[in-house]
Amino acid sequence: MPDEAAAEKTEQPTPRRLTKARVKGKVTQSEELTTVVTLLVLVIMVALLAPGLMRWFIMQMKQGMSWGSSFATDCKIAVFADSKVFMNFINTKIVDSIHVLWPIFAALCVGSALAGVAVSGLNFAPGAIQLKFDQLNPAAGLAKLVNAHSMVKLLTSILKLFFVSVIVWFYLHSKLDTLDVKIDPDDD
Question: What residue spans define the domains of the chain?
Answer without folding.
Answer: 26-125, 131-188
